[in-house]
Amino acid sequence: MDHSDDTSMSDDLCLANARLVLPDHFLTGSITIEQGVITEILEGDHRPSGSLDCAGDFVMPGLVELHTDNLERHMEPRPEVDWPHLPALIAHDAELASVGITTVFDALRAGSIHSGKGRYIDYARAVADELLAARAQGVFKISHFLHLRAEICSETLLEELARFTPDDRVGIVSLMDHTPGQRQFRDLTALRTYVAKKRGMDDNDFAEHVANLKRLQAQFGEAHEKGAVTEAKRLGAVLASHDDTTQDHVVTSHNNGVGFAEFPTTREAASACRDHGIAVMMGAPNVIRGGSHSGNVAAMELVKADLLDILSSDYVPGGLLMSAFRIADVWDDLPRAIATVTRTPALAARLSDRGSLQTGLRGDVLRVNNTQGTPVLRGVWAKGARVA
């Protein structure tokens, strides 16, 4: 995977009089970034000439987002409404910067359906080309990688994955099996509500859609899963599972070489992930709402059981930092909670150059004030350049 830089560097930056959130403790002092890299961390109340006085606010690493549907929301702001892609990419990038996300793996669906009521068009390669071109032109504020969501229940998954190369910054390939009646949509009522609102299906349309997905899974599921695992290796990407529900699902994920599990739907699956060395990711909206919108396990249940490793904003970018502060209250450990949105996702994605306040790492940092339990961003810097 291409790890080259895609954000500009600023002049030297020093943030002083700050509570620095280090990997496992706080330190009151200053942090200096030169040529985009953290060069010095000092303890004490010294405020060098030209430094920014943070007045005791937290300074922490920039957030690392491994799974977000936000780009698709900008490209299709309403069902069946296509928005021009470059403006969508720019707006998406700016929104993430504004909420403290300095590294993002943009999720694009690979695997299309051309038959039945629930049609999904092939778009990932074309959007990836536009995203990579915009990055090369220096359009973005933050660092972008690709996350290919490999839809098992599709007709063209392997053909679409074959169009990507190891030079395309594909950092993650996740195995998605949305066959109705299992995993995320064990409850068909929840699935009906979701697709009826998104695709305007009536009962007959929905029944046809369910039957078609089950047919596709029976026809392609085994071959697509095996092929997607092979393609992830070819691309040099981390493999992720999605919506594991049972111990058997987790064993299969482990055998496939999965590095982290996105949104396991049961405590049983999360516990099995821990036993097999698979990191567990849950969604920030689940944390903040107090439960899953699909009726699956509550993220806070896993937090309290010490079964959560990574948080993702999923479909609400602004929820990522907020959810970390929520779980910090449960664990009584803010550095550990901040690691779930910085260091741990960076390492899960094999990015060793970011995610912590350490000398030699990228100068992606946030200044955050804790206002009545709500984190308020007062500054966002990517490689030392202010982006929000």
TrEMBL record:
<dbReference type="GO" id="GO:0019700">
    <property type="term" value="P:organic phosphonate catabolic process"/>
</dbReference>
<dbReference type="InterPro" id="IPR051781">
    <property type="entry name" value="Metallo-dep_Hydrolase"/>
</dbReference>
<keyword id="KW-0378">Hydrolase</keyword>
<protein>
    <submittedName>
        <fullName>Alpha-D-ribose 1-methylphosphonate 5-triphosphate diphosphatase</fullName>
        <ecNumber>3.6.1.63</ecNumber>
    </submittedName>
</protein>
<dbReference type="InterPro" id="IPR012696">
    <property type="entry name" value="PhnM"/>
</dbReference>
<dbReference type="InterPro" id="IPR011059">
    <property type="entry name" value="Metal-dep_hydrolase_composite"/>
</dbReference>
<dbReference type="GO" id="GO:0016810">
    <property type="term" value="F:hydrolase activity, acting on carbon-nitrogen (but not peptide) bonds"/>
</dbReference>
<dbReference type="InterPro" id="IPR032466">
    <property type="entry name" value="Metal_Hydrolase"/>
</dbReference>
